[in-house]
C-alpha cells in the first residue's frame, strides 16, 4: 500500500512535506507509511486519498492493499432507478441535439436519438456493443472521414484522453490512447489548441447529408458521487455552434 501511495503522490507532483501539511499528518509518519514501516488506518488512507484527488475505484484499491474492505460500492446502473431517470431526462430533454452517456473507458452506456447522425456510415464492427465512442470518432471506418476538422478534433480528443490517463493511471485507457494515436490522419494536428476567429471552444465540424454541421460539446458529471460506477459516468452533450446547424438538427 505504501508503494502505491507514493506513486500517487509522485504522480500528483506533491512532496511529502506538502501532502503531510494538507492531510494534517506528520512528515515522519507519512514517510513510514510509504516505506511500509507503519500501517495506516483506513481513515488515514481515505484522508490522504482525498488530498491526492484519487478516483474512487483506486481508493478502494489502496484500502484493499492496506488490508481493509473497500469503502465505495460499485453498483450496477440497472439497479439505480433514480439515476437512470435523471439520465433519461437529460438525454431526452437535449433532443434533437446529440447526447451520449459514457463510462470511464468511453464505452457507450446510453444515448438519445440525436446521436444517429454520428452512426450513419460507420462500420458494423464499430457499432457492436460495447461501442467505444472515441474509437468510433477517430477510426477511419467510423466518423473520421466525415469530420472536416479531423486534425483539430483528434488533437482535442487525444489530449483529453492523455490527461485522463495521467489522472487515473488506468492501463486500459493508456492502451486505448496508444491505439487511437496510431490511426491515420491526413490533417495537421495542433500541439496547442488555439481559438479561431470568433471561436470560444474547439468545434466539431461534421459533414452530414451534404451539410457541414458545427457543434460544440459540454461534459456533465454527477456532483457528489459515492458509488464507483456513478463517479465514472459522464454525459457528453453537443450543441449547435451556429444558426444553420441548429436549423439542420431541427429538421426530421
Automatic annotation (TrEMBL):
Question: Which Pfam families does the entry mention?
Answer: HTH_3 (PF01381), MLTR_LBD (PF17765)
Q: What Gene3D superfamilies does its record include?
A: 3.30.450.180, lambda repressor-like DNA-binding domains
What this protein is called in its record is: Helix-turn-helix transcriptional regulator
CDD domains given in the database record: HTH_XRE
| HTH cro/C1-type domain span | 5-59
Q: Check the record and name the PANTHER family matching this protein.
A: BLL4672 PROTEIN-RELATED, BLL5781 PROTEIN
Amino acid at each position: 500500500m505504501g508503494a502505491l501511495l507514493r506513486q500517487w503522490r509522485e504522480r500528483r507532483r506533491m512532496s511529502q512535506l506538502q501532502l503531510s501539511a494538507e492531510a494534517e499528518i506528520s512528515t515522519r509518519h507519512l514517510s513510514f507509511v510509504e516505506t511500509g514501516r507503519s500501517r495506516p488506518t483506513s481513515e488515514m488512507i481515505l484522508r490522504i486519498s482525498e488530498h491526492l484527488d484519487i478516483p474512487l475505484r483506486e481508493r478502494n484499491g489502496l484500502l484493499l492493499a492496506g488490508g481493509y474492505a473497500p469503502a465505495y460500492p460499485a453498483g450496477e446502473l440497472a439497479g439505480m432507478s433514480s439515476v437512470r431517470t435523471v439520465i433519461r431526462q437529460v438525454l431526452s430533454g437535449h433532443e434533437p441535439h446529440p447526447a451520449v452517456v459514457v463510462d470511464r473507458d468511453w464505452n457507450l452506456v446510453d444515448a438519445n436519438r440525436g446521436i444517429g447522425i454520428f452512426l450513419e456510415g460507420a462500420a458494423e464492427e464499430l457499432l457492436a456493443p460495447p461501442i467505444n465512442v472515441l474509437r468510433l470518432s477517430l477510426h477511419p471506418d467510423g466518423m473520421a472521414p466525415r469530420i472536416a476538422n479531423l486534425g483539430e478534433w483528434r488533437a482535442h480528443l487525444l489530449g483529453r484522453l492523455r490527461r485522463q490517463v495521467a489522472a487515473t493511471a488506468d492501463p486500459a485507457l493508456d492502451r486505448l490512447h496508444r491505439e487511437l494515436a496510431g490511426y491515420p490522419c491526413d490533417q495537421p494536428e495542433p500541439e496547442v489548441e488555439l481559438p479561431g476567429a470568433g471561436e470560444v471552444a474547439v468545434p466539431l465540424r461534421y459533414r452530414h447529408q451534404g451539410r457541414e454541421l458545427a457543434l460544440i460539446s459540454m461534459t456533465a458529471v454527477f456532483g457528489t458521487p459515492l458509488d464507483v460506477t456513478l463517479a465514472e459516468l459522464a454525459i457528453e452533450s453537443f450543441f449547435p455552434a451556429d444558426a444553420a446547424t441548429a436549423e439542420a438538427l431541427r429538421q426530421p
